[in-house]
Amino acid sequence: MRLTSGFARALTIGVAAAVALLALDSAVHVLMAQNPFGGPRPSADPQVGGIVGWLLSKQSEFYREMSSTIRAAKSDGSAVWTLLVISFAYGIFHAAGPGHGKAVISSYLVANQETAKRGIVLSFASALMQSLVAVAIVGICALLLNATARTMCGAEKVIEIVSYALIAAFGARLVWTKGGGFIRALQAPQPLPAMALAAVAPHDHAGHGHDHHHGHSHPHAHVAHHGHEHRHDDHGHDHAQGHVHDEHCGHSHGPVPTELAGPGGWRRGFGTIFAVGLRPCSGAILVLVFALAQGMFWAGIAATLVMGLGTAITVATIAVITVSAKDLARRLSGASEGGGALIMRGLEFGAAGLVLLFGVGLLFGYIAAERVTCL
Amino acid sequence: MNIAMRRLLGLLLLAGSCSLGAGAAHSHPHVWITATSEVIYAPDGSITGVRHAWTFDDMFSTYALQGIETKTKGVYSREELSSLAQTNVESLKEFGFFTFAKADGRKEKFQDPVDYFLEYKDAALTLHFTLPLKTPVKPKELALEVFDPSYFIDFQLDDKNPIKLVGAPAACQLKIQRPNDGTANAQKLTEQNFMSGDNSNYGAMFANKITVDCP
């Protein structure tokens, strides 16, 4: 068992290195994308193929059909149904393509030990909010104020920056809280290589005893333990001297799953909904303005909401897959005793880092395409 | 156990690369432009600039016209559209006018656009503008590309006579290469390199390439 822990430790370092490498690699790419015209151009002429190419062409197809369908709906009521079907399909395909929303939601779910059910709720709520924001922008700017496209696009840009800043702030908070847990998990002496060597040493059994503490969610006040860690002896824990941090794992790294189900957990969830849902889809804005100009604003609103529904279904599917993958990871690593907790904390920390990376990358325009283009 | 851990590691790497790739990857177009362009030559045979006429799709045209005041509903005069045209060319500057020129392999720069105006016809806006080269060039080969690297805008050359050479020496030969017309030696964009995140110039795949050879 000890040897396995040593192996787990080595693996964790490997995973951490891989994550760091991936992050660095991505950072380099996004930095290069900062100057969209400075990047190296492919020498040949690649063509879009495969699933991604198919997704792209389908999206474009549905999207381009929308304008003619809205026009048709002016005289033919049944065209509205066609419009709704197209919008729904567009929503599904649109979200299946690349986009930051589902990446942020998925990373958040991993970082925060969320359930699949909550992943679904988050996906639908943020998609609904996205639709409503688009309707609100066009409703206020175009319908009420008769503002120009330039003004509207300016408003979109401001909202976009706020949204990205929120994601970055949100990611920073996640990194802060998850980082603490990860560091404490790292400080747990159990998976140290030296300990692995001491596999036959008598105090090994004491170590085993402490492992149990990881799983305990201590019934006494978790808050009280914060900031009193140096005085833990007072609480009468029956731990052996010399194992300094090990027994704190149970109450010092972030909330335990049962706490997350409480109202506080939902409040954190709202943060994600708000940060992700605040930025409307440019496509929805275009459709709404077009519908408004045709005197069919209501049809545009219906199309936007149905589009959001389609988006939500795709994002929820991805969220469920993400949560299942993490559950699988937890089950697999759970078999490896203390090292498993470290891996899970590391995974959560990495996911938190991803949210921050997305936020910062989007905010500074490194992820070039996810920027409103105002002409 | 080891197999389980290895599977876990694989899973993590997969999840990581997918989400990173998705974050850096690009979207699909929201605006479609049908382009015709003219390459303008001086009497001495040097190229002085490029003149574009870009027609927007009807959805974007309607969007762009939002809030523009007109005397007659649905009719937009060149004067009524002048401020929008101004906005357009100013915004396009940020994107290098989506026009990339190379003279004998050397990148050429453009000055700010001149003679720009918008025209509204058949429910579509057409933006006309001239891009003068910083310095006129007289290359053996001019390569001109029109595309949006981020692929927010899809550029398509008009079906017939999309490119004209205005005042070019008689010996000059024009070649046009459209995206996806099969003439390019196609290198498939697979999921793999799409997800690798190296798609900062994703739109280049949809570039319209124009070459003018003057021996």
The portion of residues forming beta strands of chain A comes to under 5%
Instruction: Count the DSSP helices of chain B.
Output: 4
Globally, the shape of chain A reads elongated
Largest sheet of chain B: 6 strands, mixed
Which percent range fits the helix content of chain B?
10-25%
Oligomer: heterodimer
Cα shape of chain B: globular
Number of beta strands of chain B: 12
Overview features:
heterodimer, A: 375 residues, mainly alpha, 74% helix, disordered N terminus, B: alpha+beta, five-stranded antiparallel β-sheet, 12 strands
Quickly describe the structure.
By secondary structure, chain A is mainly α. Chain A has 15 helices and one strand, in the order H-E-H-H-H-H-H-H-H-H-H-H-H-H-H-H.
Structural features, described:
The complex is a heterodimer of chains A (375) and B (215). With 375 residues, chain A is mainly alpha-helical. Chain A has 15 helices and 1 strand. Chain A has helices at 2-33, 50-75, 79-96, 100-111, 116-144, 149-187, 193-197, 204-215, 222-225, 249-252, 257-260, 263-277, 282-293, 297-334, 338-363, and one strand at residues 45-48. In chain A, helix 2 packs parallel to helix 13 (282-293). Chain A is elongated and about 75 Å long. Residues 1-47 and 191-264 of chain A have low confidence and may be disordered. In chain B, 22% of the residues lie in helices and 38% in strands. In chain B, the strands form 2 sheets. In chain B, strands 1, 2, 5, 6, 8 and 9 form a 6-stranded mixed β-sheet that branches. The termini of chain B are far apart. The chains are: A mainly alpha (375), B alpha+beta (215). At the A-B interface, helix 1, strand 1, helix 2, helix 4 and helix 6 of A face helix 1, helix 2, helix 3 and strand 11 of B. Strand 1 of chain A pairs parallel with strand 11 of chain B, so a sheet runs across the interface.
